[in-house]
Write a structure and sequence with these properties.
Blueprint: E1 7-12, H1 24-31, E2 37-43, H2 49-61, E3 66-71, H3 74-87, E4 95-99, H4 101-105, H5 112-130, E5 146-150, H6 154-165, E6 169-174, H7 196-209, E7 213-217, E8 219-227, E9 230-237
Parallel strand pairs: 1-2, 1-3, 3-4, 5-6, 6-7
Antiparallel strand pairs: 8-9
Helix pairs in contact: 1-5, 2-3, 6-7
Length: 241
């Protein structure tokens, strides 16, 4: 039987970055009305030591099994808040963030009421999502040392060669019958004045002769499946007639 969600919502002022625009106390009171929200509070800086301690204390005191933090970008702060959840005894994946700084206060600095309503919407969405979160366990998976490079212009050629020199098997596909891309059509390069083929030809020859590079011309990617470290690609090679 699944446990009843008990959600804790922590809303950050981020100094004046959020609190200077969004009416944070009003948003806190709104969060308390949402389904399964057991506890809600605001912090001046949720990412501070005091803010993190507040999350851990609330998890234990109110027996929370989901945590939502409404603050800044998850890109920089999600690992910090996940760690706090772990220290409080929660699975790190029973955590959700709502970005009410970059996606709200910073883009609506002159519309405090609208920003406040938008913050409520973002938090309501995070709460709805968090009710469906489940405990996950980290698993390790092997990474296939093989790469697919699409396009055999100068950038694709250089990328394929660099990867191959690092030990990767490389599939390089080009939809045209020949490689080199636009650079092969140029005479001189700006601003050096070098002849384009003087630069391009050695790289083309290195790619063509490299034992770890398989080159497919007149080809296109038809399907791609899988996940990071283990993709499966279907390449269609067109006839040359």
């Amino acid at each position: 039987m699944k446990e009843e969600p008990r959600l804790g919502v922590f809303i950050c002022h981020c100094g004046v970055n959020i609190g200077g625009v969004v009416k944070v106390p009003e948003v806190v009171e709104y969060a308390k009305t949402l389904p399964h929200v057991t506890y809600a509070e605001d912090n001046i800086y949720t990412c501070s030591e005091a803010g993190l301690d507040s999350i851990k204390d609330a998890v234990k005191k109110y027996n929370l099994n989901r945590v939502i933090v409404a603050s800044c970008t998850p890109r920089t702060h999600e690992p910090l808040f996940r760690s706090a959840c772990v220290e409080a005894g929660l699975n790190p994946y029973l955590f959700e963030m709502a970005n009410i700084r970059e996606q709200c206060s910073w883009v609506h600095p002159k519309e405090p009421q609208k920003a406040t309503e938008k913050a409520k919407d973002l938090i309501r969405m995070a709460v709805a999502k968090s009710r469906l979160l489940e405990r996950l366990q980290i698993k390790e998976a092997g990474v296939t040392l093989r790469a697919l490079v699409i396009g055999a212009g100068i950038a694709g050629l250089r990328s394929a060669l660099d990867l191959a020199n690092r030990g990767f098997e490389v599939c390089l596909i080009e939809k045209a019958p020949s490689i080199g891309g636009r650079m092969a059509q140029l005479s001189e390069l700006y601003p050096t004045g070098e002849y384009a083929l003087d630069v391009l030809k050695p790289i083309m020859e290195a790619v063509a002769s490299h034992p770890k590079i398989k080159l497919f011309t007149n080809s296109e990617l038809e399907a791609l499946d899988g996940f990071i470290g283990n993709f499966k690609a279907k390449i269609v090679v067109k006839p040359r007639y």
